[in-house]
Zinc transport system membrane protein TroD
Amino acid sequence: MSSDFWIILTACLMSAACGLLGCFLILRKMALIGDAISHAVLPGIAIAFLLSGTRDSLAMMIGATALGLLAVFLIQWLQNSGIQSDASIGIIFTALFAIGVIIISLNARNIDLDLDCVLFGEIAYVQWDTWTANGIDMGPRSVWMLGSALLIILLLLALFYKQFKISAFDPAMAVACGIPVMLFHYLLMGMVSMTSVASFESVGAILVVGMLIIPASTAYLLTDRLGRMLMYSVLTGVVSSIIGYYTAYILNASIAGSIVTVAGILFGIAFVFSPKHGVLIRRLRQRRSQGTAIAE
């Protein structure tokens, strides 16, 4: 298959996984948690590589998920101790990210990890990093990682959709219904950690934040129903990936950067023209209400 196919497929899988999780982060007003986790998992990746001696997907995913959950726990602990939410997020993710940078820099000879790749990613090279099983080329490693992450996310959301939904909209009601809110909180954070490390080689730690937040925010402006929001978020991410890739091809620019830029443009369009929450619609309603008041 052509390199174009693998690049677009990788981008679409990443966008779908991030889009689904981003909806719950937006609804729970935890968008910056995605930023924190995507940076905080770096020491987990480095430690997993040192212990395993390989870039094995499972080892790195386990290490990243563990550090992501640790970051969430530490943030929650600081908040319970009286530290403001934004301050606790900034403290934890910068501290853990710095630890990851130190680990990599001190073991540069033993760790085959490029910080630029971790930060920014390079989706154009995904077709060269393949997974071989029993001498058979199974295709790009990123496709398998992101496909597995997306499959796990879909499975967990299908099994516990009502629990995630109630916990996102009304945690107090969820507790009253006997739902273990903290369990689903950490389960969501674990999925974000897993998706972050699966996305590193395609978009990097920084740009994955954009795909976690922007498509979900766009979908939030378009509907008030969670099911449709999830669908619109995934659709926005996939459309951004396809248009962003061909835009980057024409302009000879960064593919990952173009994808997030297109997502930002789609958000801007929704922000202005959304049927329910768009700026233009709100102004028209205000003028109509003013006209009606004057006529009366």
